[in-house]
Each structure stands twice: as C-alpha cells, then as structure tokens.
Design goal:
By secondary structure, this protein is an alpha+beta fold. It has helices spanning 26-30, 69-77, 94-115, 148-165, 178-182, 211-221, 359-366, and strands at residues 41-47, 62-68, 130-138, 169-170, 175-177, 193-197, 202-206, 227-230, 237-238, 263-265, 272-278, 282-289, 295-308, 314-326, 332-345, 356-357. The longest helix has 22 residues, at 94-115. It is globular, with a radius of gyration of 22 Å.
Length: 367
C-alpha cells in the first residue's frame, strides 16, 4: 500500500495533478468509463489510495462523490485530472472494462454489508386489500433507428425479471432494492442483449432495457408515501423522440447491477406490495397496501418546451411537480418539485412535434 504522495512510485507523475485534488486516486480511475442503462449522473463508490490522506487500512479509504457526464467528457477530451486525451480505464480494453465493472460490484456488496440495511424479501401472492396506484408500460416502442430485435429481447428480459419483484412486501422499516431481488443478469440465466446507453449514446448489452422496469416502479412510488433513497436520473440527454408518451419526460431511472440501484424505504406504519406481470404488449404494475392512505398524490409536468441555444443545439426543458391532497377535505397539503430537466436533444430536430423556442424568446417569456 502506498504510504503517501511523496513516496509514490515513478508512475505517480503520470497521474497529473492528483496531489492537488483530494478526489484523485488510481482506484477511482479504475471505475470510470462504464456504460449504464441511461446514465448521466453516476455515483462512484470508490476505495481509493488517496495520495494525501495516507490511509492505514482499505476500509478507511471509503470515499463517495458524484461524477457527471460533463466531468467524464472533460477528463477524456480536454485534460482532466489524468491528463489530456487519456482514455478512461474501462475503455482501454475488454479486460480493464471487466476489472472496472467487477470492482464496482464488489464495493457495493461491501457497502451493503456494512450498512446493515433491512431489505424487503418476503412475498405474498395474494393481493393486499388496497390498490394505491397502477400503471401499464408499453414494451415495444419506436426508438429512432434502434434495431427492433433489441425491443424483442427486452421483452424477454422483462419477463425473466418480473417474477423476482412480483408479490414482494415492503414492511415498515424495510428497504426495497431492485438488484437485491433481481440479481445479476446473464446470458446463462436467459437474459438477452438489449438497449443500453454508453457515454450519452445508444449501445447494447445483456439485460439492456430493464431500466423500463425501474421506470415503472419509480412512477408508481411517486404516487405513494414511500421514500426514494436511491435513484439515478438520466435527464441530461433526450435520446429519442416521443412515441405515445404517457408520463412526463425526465421521470425515468438509470440502473446497472449492482452499483446503480433503485431503492425505496418504507418509513410509514403501513405495508406495501408490488404486483408485476408481463403481457404480450405491456409491463403491468400495481402498488398495493394493507391500509388505505389518507392522502392522494398527483404528478404533473409544467414549463415544458424545446429551446435552441446560441450554438445551434436544441435542449428539452421541463419541471415535474408532485401535489399531495387530503382525501377527506380535498385540500392540498404539499406541492413539491420532483425534478427539473435540461436535456440535450440528440435526435433530428425535424422529429420534434412542438415549436422550438429561440433563446431570446425564452428570455422574454421568463421576464
């Protein structure tokens, strides 16, 4: 183990200005360059040999911070902390990619063990008495020029994952974790190659498309008192034009086994249940509860528009709010911002079906 920056080996110079940045470490670099299903903001849980802190044990080296797609871009193209034009570790070769992925998986397992979280695992296949919210998500969608075979493969993968979630009970004090229940996807288990997003662009990988599953879960949870404790958002890019959109743009999720998870905690005295099934056309979901809720939730979009920036790029912007109303009185008891999106449009602007605002037009509207 390295004892300090001053005693670092010769290759330490290769790390650029690591000594100036307390987040700089070789082990952090190992985790970069990983494709995810819809990633924009990814949380790096790093065990790093920080050259300044001189850690005395591996577990004392835990650090955590967020790395945005913009950060990754700057590091790769304009000389971030590891030098101009240097590839991310996960991009060097298939071997380094596998090392980076498995490192992240191991770190998350250690974190789970240390946290001692009580995960929801018990299932009940009889419905709890109260229906809180239900939603159907269309499986096969037109996504630009994406190969339709990836959509068919996604349907198979969703069908394999659904039984792992269906019927699960989230008792008071328990945390629901998508990956704790579904487990790692593999071809051996029957999962197929589906659509993923790699460095802000479409790609493919085993189990690709399962983010649609957590999108459905997230939309239902937003209509409940369950607390979202882990949610990775992908609202900085708009990859595909709308196709029969039913929910507001930017309310999706990003997942990768197991270090990008979707988790919710039940901090109420009520027990909740997820019912999931896959039909020929839809992924169907329903959130049920043991007791009726005293309030009702409504999620809506506001200030939605497309805008052309000075550089000619088009951005999609909106705000999503959640309203809470007392069922007995009808009074609104809470009104909160869920998310604000500012997404770069990556498809042809001719596919946008609403007027595109000019920059000065938006400024005049806001004033």
């Amino acid at each position: 183990m390295f004892k300090g920056y001053e005693r670092r080996p010769a290759f330490g110079k290769w790390l650029g200005n690591a000594y100036k940045n307390p987040k700089s470490s070789f082990m952090t670099w190992l985790g970069r360059g990983l494709p995810v299903q819809g990633v924009v903001n990814i949380r790096i849980l790093a065990i790093g040999y920080d050259w300044r802190t001189r850690p005395h044990s591996l577990l004392n080296c835990w650090t955590a911070w967020s790395v945005t797609s913009r950060d990754l871009n700057q590091e790769k193209h304009i000389g971030g902390q590891f030098g101009v034009g240097r590839k991310l570790f996960g991009e060097i070769s298939p071997l380094t990619y596998a090392i980076a992925v498995n490192r992240q998986i191991i770190l998350r397992k250690i974190q789970n063990f240390q946290a001692g979280t009580k995960f929801a695992t018990k299932k009940e296949y009889g419905d709890l008495p109260v229906s809180v919210y239900k939603h159907n998500s269309l499986i096969r969608r037109k996504l630009g020029t994406v190969d339709l075979a990836l959509q068919e493969n996604k349907a198979i993968s969703l069908g394999l994952a659904a039984p792992h979630i269906d019927g699960v009970l989230i008792a008071p004090g328990e945390t629901f974790s998508f990956w704790q229940l579904v487990g790692r996807c593999s071809a051996k288990k029957g999962y197929r190659v589906g659509l993923t997003i790699n460095h802000s662009g479409p790609d493919s990988g085993i189990g690709g498309g399962l983010c649609q599953f957590t999108n459905l879960l997230h939309w239902m949870v937003l209509h409940s008192p369950l607390d979202i404790v882990e949610h990775h958002h992908h609202g900085e890019i708009d990859l595909f034009p709308d196709f029969n959109r039913q929910i507001p743009f930017g309310t999706g999720t990003s997942i990768v086994y197991n270090y990008l998870d979707y988790r919710v905690k039940n901090n109420t005295d009520n027990t909740f249940q997820l019912r999931i099934c896959v039909t020929e056309e839809h992924l169907r979901g329903e959130l049920r509860a043991a007791q009726s809720l005293p309030v009702k939730y409504h999620v809506k979009e506001q200030d939605a528009y497309f805008q052309e920036e000075a550089d000619g790029e088009v951005y999609r912007r909106n705000k999503v709010y959640r309203s809470t109303r007392d069922k007995r009185t009808g009074n609104e008891t809470a009104y909160e911002l869920v998310v604000e999106n500012n997404a770069k449009v990556l498809y042809d602007r001719t596919l946008i079906n609403t007027p595109i605002r000019a920059l000065d037009e938006t400024e005049s509207v806001s004033t």
